[in-house]
Design goal:
The complex is a heterodimer of chains A (about 210) and B (about 230).
Chain A lengths: L2 H8 L3 H17 L1 H15 L12 H28 L4 H25 L13 H4 L1 H23 L4 H24 L15 H8 L6
Helix pairs in contact in A: 1-7, 2-3, 3-7, 4-5, 4-7, 5-8, 7-8, 7-9
Chain B lengths: L15 H11 L2 H14 L2 H6 L13 H26 L4 H25 L8 E2 L8 H22 L6 H24 L15 H11 L2 E3 L2 H6 L7
Antiparallel strand pairs in B: 1-2
The chains are: A mainly alpha (about 210), B mainly alpha (about 230).
Chain lengths: ~210, ~230
Amino acid sequence: MVEGAQTRIESPGEGRERLLARVSRASLFKGSVAVLGALAGAAVGGAELAASAGSGGSAATDREILTYGLLIERLQAAFYAAALAGGQLTGEARQFAQVVGADEQAHVSYLSAALGSSAGASPRFRFGDSATDPAKFIATAISLEETGLGVYNGQAISLTPKTLAAAARVVSVEARHAAWARAIAGKDPAPVAVDVPITVAQAKQTFKPFIVA
Amino acid sequence: MPESDPVFLKVDDFDVDGAVREAFERMPQHTRSGFLGRAAAAGAAALGVVAAWPDLASAQPQSSDTKILNFALTLEYLQASFYTEAEQIGALRGALAHQAHVVGMHERAHVKAFKQLLGPAAIKEPTFNFHGVTENPDAFRSTAVAFEDLATAAYKEQAPLIKSKSYLAGALAIHSVEARHAAWIRRLAGFLPAAHAFDDPLSDAKVVQIVNSTHFVTLRDPQTSMKAKPRFTG
């Protein structure tokens, strides 16, 4: 389904695709040592945003990570709202947009409440036909959900335990969204045995085309 | 799935407790009584089953991370054994057979990873008896939904308790894969893959209680049993 569109949308993440393929091969055919190697690499990659923080985490680091999480949730909520407003989705894709859009809106409220006055205003987003064209919608949804999940997984190790527990309630829901979107596109919902984190730098490349200001 | 054929997945939530109860009730009567008979012969059934779990409150000199990893390993043993058996029996077809094949590979990879991490401290694999659930596509589907939602909730509870950053990174990377598995099988069962905006954690005590209610865990490795003290003795 629309491989061309998906390749274009996911092109900033080509490194991730290679990494996924590597971990997949490692986890399936080379056993535990390779899986652990991949996990160790993943942990290193995830330290990026909180590089200046101590190993125990801090309130400042928590806030920094949740602020980026809020941007992701706002972007996703806006994407599904735009997709539904376009009125062209039908069947399971439409149900997906409705259910997942409501989830993302709930996540926006949850993170906004956690951040309080430091939440700040949302940027404006522009999705064009990536949201409204049924052929492009699912490919874009997969890209946004996989990227959001990958960032959460990478950053979560730097959170304080209490904030990690709160964030984890959102993370697995993002994983369910990613899996569901993949299923609708006819792809395996869980392509690898361990999910590989995505760096914030990679995520910014994926999100950049959709952020106006 | 054709766009012209709207699919409306059930909005009702999946009842994990109900599913495992149903799976047990679905067992052929002779299997059930046979199992209970064997368990009774082996001693108190409840004690035998509970003893199959790593003792999370053990006074043994193992770190809290080791206990958590062994708890995770036990859940992975359970799932890997379930999918492997279902695939070997071969009663599943189509999308369900593919799900069992791929998810089974993942769960076996998780088992290997935890065993490698734990080394000699790794708990031995218990003996499982799935009582025919792996031979019946409907029972398999319900049980798989229950297992995957349960595993997701179990990892979510344990992850913030992990002290080592590298173990934590590994647990998180598996936590979200279990959530993908849950979404996958829920969709095949006709349920919303993401039924709620937030997934809640589940305590290890509650997870053990739910799994024990299935009577799938029948015997702990004798060597490991020797080291564990019974949980229900005064």
